[in-house]
Design goal:
By secondary structure, the protein is an alpha+beta fold. It is 53% helix and 8% strand.
Length: 759
Amino acid sequence: MEEVITLLDRPPFRAEKQHTQWARRSGARAILDWLADFPGESWQERWEASPAAQCPRRWAQQGHAWVGTAAPVRWSSIQAGLLILAGADVIRLPLTWQFGYRTTHLRSVVEQARDREGYARLREKVDPKRWTAVGGRRARLALARIMLTKGGGLADITAGDAIQYSIELRKSEIDNSGGTLFYSWLRDLGHLPSDAPATLRFLDRVTGQLTCEQLVDRHGVACAPIRRLLIDYLEERRPKLDYSTLDNLARALTRNFWSDLERHHPGIASLDLPPGVASAWKERFRTRTQRRKRPDGTLEETVVERADHALLLMAVRAFYLDIARWAAEEPARWGPWVAPCPIKEAETSNRKRIKRVKARMDQRTRERLPALEAFAQAAADHHRHQSARLQALLAVPPGATFTLGDAVYTRTKNATTANARDPHGALLRFDLAEHRAFWAWAAVEFLRHTGARIEEMLETSHHAMIQYRLPTTGEIVPLLQIAPSKTDQERVLLVSPELADVLATIIRRVRDPRTGAIPLLAAYDYEERTWNPPAPLLFQWDRGGETSRMSGEFIRKALAEVLAYIGLTDSTGQPLDFAPHDFRRLFITDAIRSGLPPHIAQVIAGHTNINTTMGYHAIYPTETIEAHRAFITRRRALRPAEEYRTPTDAEWEDFLGHFERRKLSVGTCARAYGTACIHEHACVRCSLLRPDPAQRGRLVEIRDNLLDRIAEAEREGWLGEIEGLQVSLAGAQSKIDQINSAASGRSVMLGLPTLRTSP
């Protein structure tokens, strides 16, 4: 005992204040005197043999009386003594015991007594504001609890210790916000191996890729030979399929096909299905029961037609036909399972379904294309609104009131948060509202200017922004590299000025203010069930101090808030919602309408088939599509087949060169791709010239020069030049008026058309 007391009198366990040191010392001595009467060779064994180790509540209620039998010490001193004994690793307290024992001094005692050097390194890596914030304090408490349970310092905490803590914390009733931030700190310190999980946030929802055997067994196939056949079939198909497709195929063949047959026909063990059995199965899976909760809490059941009915039939038919084909190559393995396919080819025809889907998507595009600009403007206005609300809150001290509109809000007393209460007492998180509004605006701008899929947007990193030097002029062109997604085909997009502004704003937001770098983030791919290598993803956010990748669900909810803010409705009066994929259809439709050739749009969209691109285009006239296809058919009959392929580098450079040739000294030419100048390069006169406001001074000089030339022509009698100079003067004055109108925000009256009477 005296060795322990002597240890507590030395740094780092000795307290700076004499009164605190006396309380710790007297309390620790009293506890050790009490534990000396219990069996065990170490103080830990004696603690575990005592009633105090069984339940922290009993310790809180009876601990004073228990220890009081050995020495008359105050309860506050006993509590201080227990903490310093745990901090000195004399006694180790289990996690469940610590969760039930509430004290405000545990974290400070451990940080003083354990691994001061490790804590100093950690403080250098953590933002000071985060260190003292609520989430930071909870992360520090998590580290302290693990060390009190396992012993050692920060470097001794393993990934298994962190996982165990996270599991035990979820089982408890303790508020676990910030409960995984400590793991991120351990990774920053470099104490965890490279193969450790990237984060603990989604550990309970991340399963990884299942084997073919696990994919089949999760749906319970009773017939052992059929189970083995399904596993072998999936193993044969696996090399050519991505994991998401394999997962869906396994679900179709097991749960939706064979497990259903076993449930309705117990004992079935052959693929040769009687006609009645096959017909009954197809009829059952033609519809499904849709359950919705009514406002009163009861469930409403509705029978609806399955949207994936044809896809399910195709999967089962392919299963039968693949076995029949493989039996010719390996008769011993697949021959015994060859059976007549219960699904005819006509039943898998999905033309009708495709036409219905196309018509529904076209109607959806037609309704949303006119409202696209209004929705994008609403997203920007919504972010400005939420940002102004946040700034109004931060402008007042904690606990003060402020007014927004007609309502009076009260900021909470916690200075590290941006929360307030409305007049009804409800807690509002102004920082989170501004955060969602910003990313809604960023998603809308990114999607509508790139036509990318949402998964491609969420996987875009800082490394995707590259520069390309045009070989003809040497001009630097910014490009955005889209990572392979659905088609595993990488592509690049030309970055417009509008998109460049959006990307720059996103980078400023996610950049680490201390280092200036974008944090590296290892994101989980929910389609492939694998972790991607760490990358500086653009769509990430600080979630309680831990960087986290944005999810598609988060983006959809943020877009729904913009919709609620603007209140758009369709022709039936229902809310006109915008899904992330709608922007892809709108991008392709608008690009083709603006004159972009369909095969170029195909490359930009990343489609392997031009028919897919045309399927996204809703406004393209039917007769034009048919004429274009007929033209291609005729040309293919006359020209070599090598011409019908992905555009070459030369064609792509010609496409990029079109934008170079549109750049003028006083603005930009707005002529469509593939068209020549029809005004003999008299740009000042041309209605397609889009004047640059920055070149107003040059246009004024041109106008003044034209006035001088007209005056000279009138003096010299050059009447043949006056009319041409006056046309140029009118064009120059028109461009100046356009710039002036845009600067003042006024609209330009173009006048009304009039009918000319024939002479």
